[in-house]
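Intended use. Records like the one below are meant for learning the mapping from a protein sequence to its folded structure. Do not use them to infer anything beyond what is encoded.
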Amino acid sequence: MQMTFRRERWPLARPFKISRSTIHEAYPVVVELREGIHTGRGECEVHENDLSAIDRGMRRLEQLRPDIERVGFSRMALSKLLPACPIRNALDCALWDLEAKRAGMPAWRLAGLDEPRPLTTVYTISADHPGAMAEQAAAARRYPMLKIKLKGEGDIARVQAVRDAAPGARLIVDANEAWTFAQLEAFAPSLHAVGVELIEQPLPHGKDAALAGFRSPVPLCADESCLHTGSLPEVAGKYQFVNIKLDKTGGLTEAVQLDAQARRLGLRIMVGCMVGTSLAMAPAMLVARNAEFVDLDGPLLLAQDRTPGLRFEGTVIHPPASDVWG
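Structure written out for the chain above:
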Protein backbone atom coordinates (compact mmCIF):
# COMPACT_ATOMS: atom_id res chain seq x y z
CA MET A 1 0.00 0.00 0.00
CA GLN A 2 1.20 3.52 -0.83
CA MET A 3 -0.10 6.68 0.82
CA THR A 4 -0.24 10.21 -0.52
CA PHE A 5 -1.89 13.18 1.16
CA ARG A 6 -2.39 16.86 0.52
CA ARG A 7 -4.01 19.97 1.92
CA GLU A 8 -6.60 21.54 -0.34
CA ARG A 9 -8.16 25.00 -0.43
CA TRP A 10 -11.85 25.52 -1.21
CA PRO A 11 -13.25 29.09 -1.06
CA LEU A 12 -16.69 29.46 0.50
CA ALA A 13 -19.62 31.07 -1.28
CA ARG A 14 -19.85 33.55 1.61
CA PRO A 15 -18.14 33.95 5.01
CA PHE A 16 -19.34 31.29 7.44
CA LYS A 17 -19.77 32.54 11.00
CA ILE A 18 -20.36 30.60 14.19
CA SER A 19 -20.06 31.67 17.81
CA ARG A 20 -16.30 31.18 18.02
CA SER A 21 -14.95 31.89 14.53
CA THR A 22 -15.48 33.09 10.97
CA ILE A 23 -14.07 31.15 8.03
CA HIS A 24 -13.72 32.22 4.40
CA GLU A 25 -12.13 29.05 3.03
CA ALA A 26 -12.12 25.35 3.82
CA TYR A 27 -8.77 23.57 4.07
CA PRO A 28 -9.50 19.85 4.01
CA VAL A 29 -6.79 17.21 4.10
CA VAL A 30 -7.25 14.46 1.53
CA VAL A 31 -5.60 11.05 1.95
CA GLU A 32 -5.21 8.56 -0.90
CA LEU A 33 -4.23 4.93 -0.38
CA ARG A 34 -3.13 2.99 -3.46
CA GLU A 35 -2.87 -0.76 -3.71
CA GLY A 36 -2.33 -2.21 -7.17
CA ILE A 37 -4.91 -0.73 -9.55
CA HIS A 38 -7.18 0.53 -6.76
CA THR A 39 -7.16 3.86 -4.91
CA GLY A 40 -9.18 4.71 -1.83
CA ARG A 41 -9.77 8.32 -0.75
CA GLY A 42 -10.82 10.07 2.42
CA GLU A 43 -11.20 13.69 3.47
CA CYS A 44 -11.14 15.45 6.83
CA GLU A 45 -11.06 18.92 8.29
CA VAL A 46 -8.25 18.99 10.83
CA HIS A 47 -9.26 22.36 12.24
CA GLU A 48 -11.87 24.89 11.21
CA ASN A 49 -9.51 27.90 11.09
CA ASP A 50 -6.03 27.02 12.45
CA LEU A 51 -3.62 26.38 9.58
CA SER A 52 -0.82 25.42 11.98
CA ALA A 53 -3.01 22.56 13.25
CA ILE A 54 -3.36 21.36 9.65
CA ASP A 55 0.44 21.39 9.26
CA ARG A 56 0.77 19.35 12.45
CA GLY A 57 -1.77 16.87 11.14
CA MET A 58 0.16 16.43 7.92
CA ARG A 59 3.40 15.91 9.81
CA ARG A 60 1.60 13.25 11.83
CA LEU A 61 0.57 11.50 8.63
CA GLU A 62 4.18 11.47 7.49
CA GLN A 63 5.25 9.97 10.82
CA LEU A 64 2.63 7.24 10.39
CA ARG A 65 3.70 6.35 6.85
CA PRO A 66 5.78 3.26 7.80
CA ASP A 67 2.84 1.77 9.73
CA ILE A 68 0.27 2.62 7.08
CA GLU A 69 2.31 1.31 4.16
CA ARG A 70 3.20 -2.02 5.75
CA VAL A 71 1.66 -5.20 4.41
CA GLY A 72 -1.72 -6.05 5.93
CA PHE A 73 -2.51 -2.60 7.37
CA SER A 74 -6.24 -2.45 8.14
CA ARG A 75 -8.96 -0.41 9.79
CA MET A 76 -8.51 -2.50 12.93
CA ALA A 77 -4.82 -1.64 13.01
CA LEU A 78 -5.67 2.03 12.46
CA SER A 79 -7.97 2.15 15.48
CA LYS A 80 -5.09 0.93 17.64
CA LEU A 81 -2.61 3.33 16.07
CA LEU A 82 -4.56 6.59 16.44
CA PRO A 83 -7.18 7.96 18.83
CA ALA A 84 -10.40 9.35 17.38
CA CYS A 85 -9.43 12.45 15.40
CA PRO A 86 -9.93 13.98 11.94
CA ILE A 87 -6.74 12.44 10.51
CA ARG A 88 -7.95 9.00 11.52
CA ASN A 89 -11.24 9.78 9.79
CA ALA A 90 -9.53 10.50 6.46
CA LEU A 91 -7.51 7.29 6.76
CA ASP A 92 -10.47 5.18 7.85
CA CYS A 93 -12.67 6.42 5.00
CA ALA A 94 -9.86 5.88 2.50
CA LEU A 95 -9.52 2.30 3.75
CA TRP A 96 -13.28 1.73 3.36
CA ASP A 97 -13.14 3.13 -0.18
CA LEU A 98 -10.15 0.95 -1.04
CA GLU A 99 -11.76 -2.15 0.46
CA ALA A 100 -14.95 -1.54 -1.54
CA LYS A 101 -13.00 -1.19 -4.77
CA ARG A 102 -10.97 -4.34 -4.10
CA ALA A 103 -14.12 -6.31 -3.31
CA GLY A 104 -16.09 -4.90 -6.23
CA MET A 105 -19.03 -4.06 -4.00
CA PRO A 106 -20.30 -0.88 -2.31
CA ALA A 107 -19.05 0.12 1.12
CA TRP A 108 -22.54 0.00 2.61
CA ARG A 109 -22.82 -3.68 1.76
CA LEU A 110 -19.37 -4.41 3.21
CA ALA A 111 -20.46 -2.65 6.41
CA GLY A 112 -23.69 -4.65 6.63
CA LEU A 113 -25.80 -1.50 6.40
CA ASP A 114 -28.92 -0.63 4.49
CA GLU A 115 -28.44 0.82 1.03
CA PRO A 116 -28.18 4.63 1.19
CA ARG A 117 -31.12 6.57 -0.15
CA PRO A 118 -31.59 10.22 -1.08
CA LEU A 119 -31.63 12.41 2.04
CA THR A 120 -32.70 15.96 2.75
CA THR A 121 -30.06 18.00 4.54
CA VAL A 122 -30.56 21.16 6.52
CA TYR A 123 -29.13 24.34 5.05
CA THR A 124 -27.12 26.43 7.50
CA ILE A 125 -27.66 30.13 8.16
CA SER A 126 -24.45 31.49 9.63
CA ALA A 127 -24.47 33.75 12.69
CA ASP A 128 -24.71 37.48 12.04
CA HIS A 129 -26.93 40.42 12.93
CA PRO A 130 -30.66 39.74 12.43
CA GLY A 131 -30.94 41.68 9.17
CA ALA A 132 -28.10 39.76 7.51
CA MET A 133 -29.51 36.47 8.73
CA ALA A 134 -32.92 37.37 7.35
CA GLU A 135 -31.28 37.98 3.95
CA GLN A 136 -29.63 34.55 4.09
CA ALA A 137 -32.93 32.93 5.05
CA ALA A 138 -34.87 34.71 2.30
CA ALA A 139 -32.36 33.43 -0.26
CA ALA A 140 -32.81 29.90 1.15
CA ARG A 141 -36.57 30.00 1.69
CA ARG A 142 -37.12 27.23 -0.89
CA TYR A 143 -35.26 24.79 1.37
CA PRO A 144 -37.46 22.75 3.73
CA MET A 145 -35.22 22.93 6.84
CA LEU A 146 -32.80 25.60 8.04
CA LYS A 147 -30.15 25.35 10.76
CA ILE A 148 -29.48 28.68 12.47
CA LYS A 149 -26.05 29.35 13.96
CA LEU A 150 -26.32 31.40 17.17
CA LYS A 151 -23.90 33.17 19.48
CA GLY A 152 -25.61 34.31 22.73
CA GLU A 153 -26.98 37.76 23.42
CA GLY A 154 -29.65 38.71 20.88
CA ASP A 155 -30.26 35.18 19.67
CA ILE A 156 -34.05 35.32 19.93
CA ALA A 157 -34.05 38.30 17.55
CA ARG A 158 -31.84 36.33 15.16
CA VAL A 159 -34.19 33.35 15.15
CA GLN A 160 -37.26 35.55 14.75
CA ALA A 161 -35.64 37.27 11.77
CA VAL A 162 -35.05 33.92 10.09
CA ARG A 163 -38.57 32.73 10.92
CA ASP A 164 -40.08 35.89 9.39
CA ALA A 165 -37.96 35.55 6.24
CA ALA A 166 -38.67 31.82 5.79
CA PRO A 167 -42.07 31.20 7.39
CA GLY A 168 -42.52 27.74 5.85
CA ALA A 169 -39.15 26.25 6.83
CA ARG A 170 -38.55 23.84 9.68
CA LEU A 171 -35.92 25.25 12.04
CA ILE A 172 -33.16 23.92 14.26
CA VAL A 173 -30.55 26.03 16.06
CA ASP A 174 -26.91 25.54 17.02
CA ALA A 175 -25.28 27.61 19.78
CA ASN A 176 -21.83 25.99 19.40
CA GLU A 177 -21.28 26.10 23.20
CA ALA A 178 -22.02 29.84 23.39
CA TRP A 179 -24.81 29.93 25.99
CA THR A 180 -24.97 29.88 29.74
CA PHE A 181 -27.52 27.67 31.47
CA ALA A 182 -29.50 30.80 32.38
CA GLN A 183 -29.68 31.73 28.70
CA LEU A 184 -30.85 28.23 27.79
CA GLU A 185 -33.62 28.45 30.38
CA ALA A 186 -34.63 31.88 29.07
CA PHE A 187 -34.36 31.12 25.34
CA ALA A 188 -35.89 27.63 25.12
CA PRO A 189 -39.58 28.63 25.61
CA SER A 190 -39.33 31.38 22.99
CA LEU A 191 -37.61 29.03 20.54
CA HIS A 192 -40.34 26.45 21.10
CA ALA A 193 -42.97 29.10 20.44
CA VAL A 194 -41.58 29.85 16.95
CA GLY A 195 -41.32 26.16 16.06
CA VAL A 196 -37.65 25.39 16.65
CA GLU A 197 -37.32 21.59 16.74
CA LEU A 198 -33.79 21.09 18.13
CA ILE A 199 -31.15 23.00 20.11
CA GLU A 200 -27.64 21.83 19.35
CA GLN A 201 -24.85 22.11 21.97
CA PRO A 202 -26.16 25.03 24.06
CA LEU A 203 -23.48 24.83 26.78
CA PRO A 204 -19.70 24.33 26.60
CA HIS A 205 -18.40 20.78 26.56
CA GLY A 206 -17.46 19.79 30.11
CA LYS A 207 -19.69 22.49 31.58
CA ASP A 208 -23.05 20.92 30.88
CA ALA A 209 -23.72 19.13 34.17
CA ALA A 210 -26.72 21.43 34.74
CA LEU A 211 -28.51 19.66 31.87
CA ALA A 212 -28.96 16.50 33.94
CA GLY A 213 -32.65 16.40 34.73
CA PHE A 214 -33.39 19.65 32.88
CA ARG A 215 -36.66 19.42 30.95
CA SER A 216 -36.23 21.61 27.91
CA PRO A 217 -39.32 22.34 25.81
CA VAL A 218 -37.05 21.84 22.78
CA PRO A 219 -34.92 18.66 22.57
CA LEU A 220 -31.19 19.12 23.14
CA CYS A 221 -28.47 17.64 20.94
CA ALA A 222 -24.87 16.95 21.98
CA ASP A 223 -22.27 17.93 19.40
CA GLU A 224 -18.95 18.96 20.96
CA SER A 225 -19.98 16.91 24.03
CA CYS A 226 -20.29 13.70 21.99
CA LEU A 227 -17.04 12.77 20.26
CA HIS A 228 -17.19 8.96 20.07
CA THR A 229 -18.64 5.94 21.87
CA GLY A 230 -16.61 6.79 24.97
CA SER A 231 -18.62 10.00 25.33
CA LEU A 232 -21.97 8.26 25.75
CA PRO A 233 -21.90 7.80 29.57
CA GLU A 234 -21.55 11.58 29.95
CA VAL A 235 -24.18 12.38 27.34
CA ALA A 236 -26.98 10.08 28.49
CA GLY A 237 -29.37 11.86 30.84
CA LYS A 238 -28.40 15.33 29.61
CA TYR A 239 -29.27 15.28 25.92
CA GLN A 240 -31.97 13.67 23.82
CA PHE A 241 -29.94 13.60 20.56
CA VAL A 242 -26.31 13.11 19.58
CA ASN A 243 -24.72 14.62 16.49
CA ILE A 244 -22.48 12.06 14.80
CA LYS A 245 -19.63 13.65 12.83
CA LEU A 246 -16.96 11.48 11.24
CA ASP A 247 -14.20 13.99 11.99
CA LYS A 248 -15.05 13.60 15.69
CA THR A 249 -15.51 9.83 15.73
CA GLY A 250 -12.32 9.23 13.78
CA GLY A 251 -14.06 7.64 10.83
CA LEU A 252 -16.97 5.63 9.55
CA THR A 253 -15.98 2.53 11.54
CA GLU A 254 -16.46 4.27 14.90
CA ALA A 255 -19.45 6.28 13.64
CA VAL A 256 -21.37 3.08 12.88
CA GLN A 257 -20.66 1.84 16.42
CA LEU A 258 -21.66 5.19 17.96
CA ASP A 259 -24.93 5.13 16.03
CA ALA A 260 -25.79 1.64 17.30
CA GLN A 261 -24.77 2.23 20.92
CA ALA A 262 -26.52 5.61 21.14
CA ARG A 263 -29.76 4.10 19.87
CA ARG A 264 -29.53 1.32 22.46
CA LEU A 265 -29.35 4.01 25.15
CA GLY A 266 -32.49 5.64 23.79
CA LEU A 267 -30.65 8.59 22.23
CA ARG A 268 -31.88 9.93 18.92
CA ILE A 269 -29.57 10.66 16.00
CA MET A 270 -28.42 13.65 14.03
CA VAL A 271 -25.59 13.29 11.51
CA GLY A 272 -23.48 16.36 10.86
CA CYS A 273 -20.36 17.59 9.11
CA MET A 274 -17.65 20.16 9.06
CA VAL A 275 -17.30 22.44 6.04
CA GLY A 276 -15.95 20.25 3.26
CA THR A 277 -16.49 18.75 -0.16
CA SER A 278 -18.59 15.82 -1.33
CA LEU A 279 -15.73 13.45 -0.51
CA ALA A 280 -16.24 14.20 3.20
CA MET A 281 -20.05 13.92 3.02
CA ALA A 282 -20.27 10.64 1.08
CA PRO A 283 -19.21 8.24 3.90
CA ALA A 284 -21.48 10.05 6.38
CA MET A 285 -24.48 9.19 4.20
CA LEU A 286 -24.13 5.55 5.30
CA VAL A 287 -24.77 6.60 8.92
CA ALA A 288 -27.33 9.26 8.06
CA ARG A 289 -29.74 6.85 6.36
CA ASN A 290 -32.02 6.67 9.44
CA ALA A 291 -31.09 9.90 11.25
CA GLU A 292 -33.90 12.25 12.22
CA PHE A 293 -31.83 15.31 11.33
CA VAL A 294 -29.21 15.37 8.56
CA ASP A 295 -26.68 18.20 8.34
CA LEU A 296 -24.46 17.39 5.36
CA ASP A 297 -24.67 20.72 3.56
CA GLY A 298 -20.89 21.36 3.49
CA PRO A 299 -20.67 21.36 -0.33
CA LEU A 300 -23.58 23.81 -0.56
CA LEU A 301 -21.53 26.33 1.44
CA LEU A 302 -18.61 26.21 -1.00
CA ALA A 303 -18.19 28.43 -4.03
CA GLN A 304 -17.66 25.19 -5.98
CA ASP A 305 -17.63 21.50 -5.03
CA ARG A 306 -15.13 18.93 -6.27
CA THR A 307 -15.78 16.96 -9.47
CA PRO A 308 -17.01 14.28 -9.45
CA GLY A 309 -19.16 15.04 -6.44
CA LEU A 310 -22.46 14.16 -4.88
CA ARG A 311 -25.58 15.08 -6.79
CA PHE A 312 -27.65 17.74 -5.01
CA GLU A 313 -31.17 18.73 -6.04
CA GLY A 314 -31.75 21.70 -3.78
CA THR A 315 -31.01 20.20 -0.38
CA VAL A 316 -31.74 16.60 -1.44
CA ILE A 317 -28.49 14.61 -1.55
CA HIS A 318 -28.26 11.51 -3.71
CA PRO A 319 -26.09 8.54 -2.65
CA PRO A 320 -22.49 8.65 -3.91
CA ALA A 321 -21.59 7.06 -7.22
CA SER A 322 -18.57 4.75 -7.13
CA ASP A 323 -16.31 7.40 -8.69
CA VAL A 324 -17.02 9.72 -5.72
CA TRP A 325 -16.50 7.27 -2.84
CA GLY A 326 -17.31 3.76 -1.67
